[in-house]
Amino acid sequence: MTPKEKATELVRKHIKVLSKDDVYADLYMADAKKCALISVDEVMVEAKCFDEYYIGETSNSADLREDYWNKVRNEINGII
């Protein structure tokens, strides 16, 4: 899944939780984006903790994972 696809998926999932009616979904876009960004931050923190605990240090795959989630974060910020 590309970072753009993941960003869109996360925002849509949060809109579904915030808005029970698709008619008002646009009203919840800003809040959904904030929630999606919180989700991304949590994934990144947990991934780093996992790597440090089980690997003992960050690895190349950890750097790639961090880069992916940073791109997702940028895509979320770019959603209008």
Summary keywords:
80 residues; 3 helices; mainly alpha
What's the structural domain tally? 1
Give the % helix.
Answer: over 70%
Total DSSP helices? 3
β content, as a range? under 5%
Record field, number of beta strands:
0
Gyration radius, rounded: 14 Å
Order of helices and strands: HHH
Distance N terminus to C terminus?
A: 20 Å
Averaged pLDDT: 87
The largest β sheet comes out as: none
Q: Which residues sit in consecutive blocks of at least 5 with pLDDT less than 50? A: none
Structural class: mainly alpha
Categorize the overall geometry.
elongated
Describe this protein's structure:
The chain is mainly alpha-helical and 80 residues long. It has one domain (3-78). The protein is 76% helix and 0% strand. It has helices spanning 3-18, 29-54, 60-78. The longest helix is centred in the middle third of the chain and has 26 residues, at 29-54.
